[in-house]
Amino acid sequence: MSEECNALNTNGTWELVRPTPSTNIGCKWIFRIKRKTDGTIDRYKAHLVAKGFNQRPGVDYFETFSPVIKPTTIRLVLSIATSHGWPLRQLDVNNAFLQGRLTEEVYMAQPPGFVDSDQPTHVCNSATQVENFVATLARQFSLKDLGPLSYFLGVEVVPHKDGILLSQRHYVMDLFTRTKMTGAKPVQTPLPTSPPISLHSGMPLSDPSTYRTVVGSLQYLSLTRPDISYAVNKLSQSMHQPSSDHWELVKRVLRYLGGTLNDGILIHRDSPITFHAFSDVDWVGNKDDYSSTGAYIVYLGRNPISWSSKKQHTIARSSTEAEYRTVASTAAKLNWVCFLLTDLGLTLPIVPIIYCDNVEATQLCSNPIFHSRMKHVAIDFHFIRDQVQFESLRVTHVSSKDQLADALTKPLPRATFQTLKCKIGLSNRDPS
C-alpha cells in the first residue's frame, strides 16, 4: 500500500481540497495476489481505485474511453520481435492512474490510508535501447522490472526450439479446479459432429450463472486457442437461456482442453513479414434460423495472429453471398493489421493474399462487371474489388482440403480436425 501511495503522490494524481459531498464519488482499495506460472505466490499488490460506478451518465460524465490493447496486436508484435531476435522485457507499473489529465473536475474522497494494472510488454531491437526505454519510463512512473517476458495476462511465454509458444496451461488448470473437472476423461474434438446443436434442445438450467461464467472463461482462453473458436462462438449464442444439453457441450470442451493442456500458438523464429489469410463459411449451417457461420485466420508469415468465428447477421441466399461477406470481413481485418504494421515502421514486400475455397466468390472479387443479382452485397463488392483493382489485395482460390479456416466454421470429424489443427499453427510444449 505504501508503494501505491508514494507512486500516486509522486505523479500528482490529485490535489487535496475541502470536501464537496454532492460531487464526492468515493474510493476503495483493491487487493490482489500475483502468482507465478506454477501457481505459487509471486507478490501481493494493492491499488486505490475511484468508485466510478457511482457516477451518473449524462450528469457526472458524457462519454467514456478506455484504451485496451487488442490480442491481435500482442501476437503481431511478439511475432515481429521473435523473427528479428529482439529481446522482450516485462515491466509492472505500480499504480493504475496512467492516463492524461482530466479536463473536468472530479472529487474523490481522501483514502483512509495511503484494480491490478496491466503489465506492459515493450519491444526494442537492442539491449541498449531496452535499458534506455525502461529508464525513461521509470522517470515518469513507479516501475517494477520483471525481467525477460515469461507470463502476462494469464499467458505463458514458453521457449521453444523453433521460437516461442504462447500457452494458457495454468489458466486451463484453474478453470478445471473451479468446474471440478480435474481428471475428466479427455476427448479428441471440442464438439461432436452430430446431432446438430440447437438453441431449443434440452431443459433450461435453473441457474445459468455457472454456464455463463465458464463460457466467458473459454472466450478468454481462445486468446491462444483458435481450435476452440467455433465451439465458443456456438456456446455463446445460448447465453440468454442455456440448457442441460448446452452445459454437456461445455463440459465436452473442457474435456478436450484436458487432453490438450500443453497446446498453444507457436510463434516461429524463421517467419517472413508477409500477410495471408484463409476465409471460409459454413453456409446455412445453423438449422435454428438458417444463418451461416463465417471464419478467418490471418497469418504473419507462418504465425497466426488473428482469427474469428462468427455467426453472420443476415441470411445468405447463396453460398457465394455468404463466402463473399466473410471475404469482406477478412479484407477489413487485413487492412487493419497492415496499417498497424505501417505504424510500427515496417513495410510489406508483397501484397496480402486471401485464400477462399469458393470459385464464384473468388472470381467475383476481380470481376469488373457488377451483376444485378449481387446488388444486395454492393458495399462488400466495391470494398473488395477496389482493393483488388488497386493491387493492394489478392483473392485466390484454394481447395477445400487446404482451407484452414474450415475448423472454425463447424464441428469436424476427428481425423480432419486434428490435421487442420496442426496446420493452423497449434503446437505442444517442446518436451526438451
Question: Any overview of this molecule?
Answer:
The chain is α+β, with helices and mostly antiparallel strands. It has three domains: 2-153, no CATH class; 169-263, no CATH class; 271-411, 2-Layer Sandwich (Nucleotidyltransferase, domain 5), CATH 3.30.420.10. The protein is built from eleven helices and 15 strands. The protein has a five-stranded antiparallel sheet. A five-stranded mixed sheet has the order 12-11-10-13-14. It has a three-stranded antiparallel sheet with strand order 4-3-5. A hairpin with a 5-residue loop joins strand 1 and strand 2. The longest helix has 25 residues, at 319-343. The radius of gyration is 24 Å and the shape is globular. The chain starts with a helix and ends with a strand. The relative contact order is 0.11. The model is unreliable at 112-118 (pLDDT under 50).
Order of adjacent strands in the largest pleated sheet = 6-7-8-9-15
How many beta-strand segments?
A: 15
Sheet with the most strands? 5 strands, antiparallel
Query: How many domains make up the 3D coordinates?
Result: 3
* Unreliable residue runs: 112-118
Mean of residue pLDDT? 85
Tell me the Rg in angstroms. 24 Å
Query: How many helices does DSSP assign?
Result: 11
- The global form is globular
Oligomeric state of the chains? Answer: single chain
Order of helices and strands: HEEHEEHEEEEHHHHEEEEHEHHEHE
- Secondary structure category: alpha+beta
Note the gap between the termini.
42 Å
Beta strand %: 15-25%
DSSP helix fraction: 25-40%
